[in-house]
Predict the 3D structure of the following.
Amino acid sequence: MTPLTSDYALEVVNLKKAFGGLVVTQDVSLTIRPGERRLIIGPNGAGKTTLFNQISGDLRPNSGEIKLFGKDVTPFTPYKRAHLGLSRTYQIITLFSDDTLEHNVTLGLLGLRPSRWQMWRPLSYYSDLSIEARRTLDTVGLLHLADHPVSDIAYGEKRRVELAMAMAQKPRVLLLDEPLAGLSNTERAQVKALVGSIPRETTVIMIEHDMDTALDLAESVTLLNYGRVIVDGDRDAVIADERTREVYLGV
């Protein structure tokens, strides 16, 4: 992984994205420090996932810059950004349901290998990655299900598999898009504990609607509305801000 240094883990500068006549991010600017826990909030349609898609490289902005540890990655593919230490989960789970948990995590690791992946080789050929995949599944409490197909496990366990895939890449910046969505109270507690245990070497930026749980994890908060940053700063100050109460909390 290329060594990068900067005062900021992530810088978003005047980011703008439009689909036809609809502008979904408008001059969005953020600076996030290494090791920070940042929560992105806003009503439905505020542009939160669109912002994540631009940061990860899944969507190109019309204008603006994205810097990862000081390096401009705006023109880079998601693959190249991953090699620089960026990883993410998705609001809609993206797993291979007919494959095992171990193979799902192994496939995620394959994408970061410096050598070319030979498609005709079975995954068993990559024994080192299989060992790492099982170790990572153990950290999220799913080693006992490593040989089971994803289709056999519960929804909350699938969320943990996706988190395992992201963490297996040893990211320096991790984007979590609604990791608690659709979970029971017990499952929320499990995932919250896992997110809370992520080492400080990893910067965590999270979109989440479960405010009570998310605020326990966050140090700073950014409020988006209609694609713009409305309030940004320390968690308690943002939550107490009248604009947050009006736009998001509805009071």
